Structure prediction request, 178 residues.
Amino acid sequence: MTALPSPGRPYCGSRHRRATRPHLRVRHLHGQVVLVARRQPPASLRTPGARLLVLAFLVLVAGVGALLAVPDLTAAPPGGPCPARVSRALTDGHGTLRIRAEETHSTTLVHLCADPDLGPVRAWAASHRLGALSRSIPVQAVGRSLALIAVTDAAEAALTLRLRLESGEHSTFVISIG
Prediction:
């Protein structure tokens, strides 16, 4: 026979203890002592081990996601930004300009690469002609002989490029992209 706890001890109260709780609880009901079975407590994240496990998993998922989401910035395309086999070459009396059009969502990104025989470019200018309408396009110089242009209406557009070379000479190139 099991000894019942004395009335002065807090076994029957509803005070929660931090340790594991027993699965049987002693209750006083209408002057009688009753053993009440508790359901198995659900697994919770209150234990430090479970919290650390979830935190380690979240850090692992975030780290793998960050590694997979970042493009490889160290690898340059073979042959530079305007490789010979995928670029169009335009030549005038001063040298050669290589142009590579890259389609994005709704914009065509045009890479402009001046060959060494053309020399360094001091200033770039571009205009976009669609039918009778002509407008200037901003050119972003990336280096002494590299530049980028973003063209939004490239379906049947004629692009006019004007270069002012370091030597003071001017070169003009006209190309249809699209």
